[in-house]
Amino acid sequence: MQFTDAVAVSGTRRTADGYLVAEVRSVRTGIQLYAGHEVGKPEMSVVRVYRPADQVFAADSLQSFTHAPVTMGHPAEAVTADNWKQLAVGEVSTAAKKDGEWVHLPLILKDAAAIRAVESGKRELSAGYTCELVWGDGVAPDGSAFDAQQSNIKINHLAIVDKARAGSKARIGDGANSWGIAPVTNDRQPEKEKIMTLKTVTVDGIPVEVTDQGATVINTLQQRLVDAGKRLTDGEAASAAKLADAEKAHAAAIDAKDKDIAAKDADLAKKDAEIDALKAKVVDGAALDALVAARADLVATAKAIAKDVKTEGLSDADIRKAAVVAKLGDAAVKDKAQAYIDARFDILAEDAKKIADADPFASVVKDGIVTSGDADKSTADAYTKMIADMKAGKSTATVN
Residue 360 sits in which domain range? Predict the structure, then answer.
């Protein structure tokens, strides 16, 4: 259990280096009075704690004073090697010794700010120590009754404080709440109204007994937590709404972008199809030669069927139709399908080929000989008679 005990700093002097040296007393024997709730006995208004001389002046207890750190006020935790540099302003310089009912010890302050504070009036010294509290009724050597005894006293630090809470000879440091238990001295009884005005406050389902001020502080903090939770809930709802709106806008943007990409993909696909169609229409050299040869053959065949047929600027189908019309007349193709016209063209082509193969001359003059004047008429008549003779089976003379 952690305790504090205080006395005034006295007998101070400065060293050549500016340090402050003082002779002080701390931790006396005898009975100290504590509020029951401070020592784990809330059912008792006052607990009388006895410090036996054999415990106060025990070798181990006195030795614990040696080089104990001096602090400004009681720290919230024990002083150790981990925090010494941040907390200490000096130390107990030599071993402690017995001085009547007190422990006498010299200390030295080395921090300029702490020295100024002491010289300005902050002159009370409070010991911070740990001990074991042994419960049991008894009577001290001076005849005073007690409820418990301290044993195994170990000093942790000495704190310089503004004012002790009780007595002028043995006073408790005002930092007791942050370090340990603060007793009242024999010459000042606990104030009953402070003990009797405790309240029970529920914190997270756990009942806690506190003073009126403590209850006010706890209730205030609890209300602030409720208010903070409400603000947080409202903020979360607003944040959730903003997030939902943002997600909706994001989804709409993505959808619009997807549609735009789809439209562009469709345009690209259309362009690709057009390019493929154009590529299909491009004829390579060999294919072009074949087309030219086929076209020439078709025109030659049409001319063989009817030499005056017009083929310029016509498609292959129109050339076949024109040749049939030229040979047989319009009635031959009227209301006829292209397949029929193609078939008639092929028949006429075969006939023309047969004539050409049988008599090249006949092929040349199969449509008649064009004459000019009377000189040509006799030639035409001779040619006509020759044809008639051939059909009658008569021999003809060769025309040179």
Answer: 285-367
